[in-house]
Amino acid sequence: MYIKNNAQKKITVFLFLLPSVAGLIVFNVVPIISALGLSFFRYDILKPIEDMTYIGLSHYRTLLSSGELRAVLTNTLYYMVMYIPIIIVVSLLLASMLSRKFKGVTVYKVLFYLPVLTSWVAGALIWKWILNGEYGLLNQFLAFFGIQGPSWLTNRVWAMPGIVLASIWKDSGHFALIFLAALIGVNKSYYEAAEIDGAGTWKKFSRITLPLISPIIFLVIIINIIAGFQIFESIFIMTGGGPGNATIVIVERIYKNAFKFYRMGYAAAYSWVLFIIIFVVTYIQFKFKKRWVNYDS
Amino acid sequence: MTLDKKKKIKKILFYVIISIIALLVIVPFLWMISTSLKGREALRTLPIRWIPKDITLDAYKEVINIPNFSFTRAVFNSFYLSIVTTFVSVMSSAMAAFIFAKIPFKGRNVLFSIFLATMMIPGSVTMIPNYIILKHLHLLNTFTGLIIPFIFNAFGVFLLRQHMASIDDAYFEAAAIDGASLVQIFFKVMLPLSKPALAVLAFFVFAGTWNSYLWPLIVLTDRAKYTLQLVLGTMSTRFGNYEHLLMAGSIISIIPIILAYIIIQHFLEEGLNLGGIEG
């Protein structure tokens, strides 16, 4: 658009960008740098800021040498290994059903989306009750088939699968809509051509749909790896990191160290470990996406 | 079997399968409703009763009058916070998006790239320094402190910029020729033309704020300022075995969001496409 380059334009540009840029600097740029700085100090939030003591890389050394970080990463990996394949399959299935034209499609869309709208606090409360060992809905359902269900959230092995189950319920509607947008974008003429060649539903899906939406699948996997490192509310409400340390994860550690144990510096070190992990994942995504997936559509 | 019949059976089969899946999705909600209508003694009776023997609304009455909290106050707080945050965040995003979409200036692309790059920064990394910043600004335990970081919303700027860039320049040129200032063009031309995108963003910010837990948990310490999610979260540790109360509280917390979603559903579908979800 042609705009005269005068003082009025300059002032408008400045004022219009001011709220965002100020917020960007004060609440994003400054914090990310000061989090790094903070991680080299011992700092108790309850004490005056003058009491901060510089301890160099000590927090990072503690992090790497204590078994806690390993437990945190193992738990996170355990979560992702279960969660990611299931969420991809389930949300793709939902999306491919919703991509058909049928009566009542909007109703189903809304139903599938209900858990996404629900807050994690409410969602976690529901699932805590469903996963209750004795009176929970799930174990009562399993008992119907003669299966004795575990006491999910208080069992070291089964706590994380319980959280995965709740997360699949919570998130699949969200990713289904993303896949749905991708499926709608696939050129219909490919299917028509394949049908003439006698391809069945599965062939069409595996040979046409899957390759064509592979960039979106890749994107959803990356999104979920990044989100997987940041799960918090589900864990915090459902298990609080327990039993023992079976479900401790990074953000839960950041919160507890900073606001329960008042070890701000140590928590900041944790948060920078998280930042580096996410940076690396994002970098890999940028670097390699062209090689891994098919982009001609 | 005729081809027609085969088609019909296929169609019925499809409905059966999708309905079973939908049922699996909503069973937790049905269970929640069922539990909330039970009395305390009925919670732990087996076998499970989907329709309680004595249906009662006591759980709702009890949760609203729960001791040490003000549940109604929390509902008000949640509404207040969500509405103000939505307004602040959408307004500030729209202003920045307008500049990025339509007004060229030196360094625009670099600045926009920086905006996008910040989407990568996890909230849990900036959380601790932000807490310390608020502490020094004496904004801890205030709604202002809770809201102010959301004045910058990279996703919002991105979403609105995509939409605004697609609006034809002719609309503005006409206004500019008539002597309208940029501010007038923004309010009188840009915002009305961006209604669907604004509605989508407003919904996302509203829902995000309504459902948020960790940030309010850190910032707010005064019980009178607690949001619904905070009250629910605290209840879960203090009344862990009173599932009928927890479920009643959860239902109350979900209803406003579902209503907002139904109102905005039409815009959302458009919005998902204009959001440009691409690899």
Keywords:
heterodimer; A: 297 residues; mainly alpha; MetI-like fold; two-stranded antiparallel ribbon; 13 helices; 2 strands; 1% strand; B: 279 residues; flat
Q: Work out the radius of gyration of chain A.
A: 24 Å
Uncertain runs of chain A: none
Return the CATH class of chain A: Mainly Alpha
Shape of chain A: globular
Radius of gyration of chain B: 24 Å
Using the coordinates above, name the CATH class of the largest domain in chain B: Mainly Alpha
Beta strands of chain A, count: 2
| Largest beta sheet: strand ordering of chain A | 1-2
The helix content of chain A, as a percent range, equals: over 70%
Shape of chain B: flat
Please outline what is shown here:
Chain A is an all-alpha fold and 297 residues long.
What does this structure look like?
The complex is a heterodimer of chains A (297) and B (279). Chain A is built from 13 helices and two strands, in the order H-E-E-H-H-H-H-H-H-H-H-H-H-H-H. Chain A has helices at residues 7-38, 58-65, 67-98, 105-117, 120-130, 137-144, 159-184, 188-196, 201-212, 214-228, 233-238, 250-259, 264-292; strands at residues 41-42, 53-54. In chain A, helix 3 packs antiparallel against helix 10 and helix 5 packs across helix 7 (159-184). The model of chain A has no long low-confidence stretch (mean pLDDT 89). Chain B folds into two domains: 3-60, no CATH class; 66-274, MetI-like (MetI-like fold). Chain B starts with a helix and ends in a 5-residue tail after the last helix. The chains are: A mainly alpha (297), B mainly alpha (279). At the A-B interface, helix 1, helix 3, helix 4, helix 5 and helix 7 of A face helix 1, helix 3, helix 4, helix 5 and helix 8 of B.
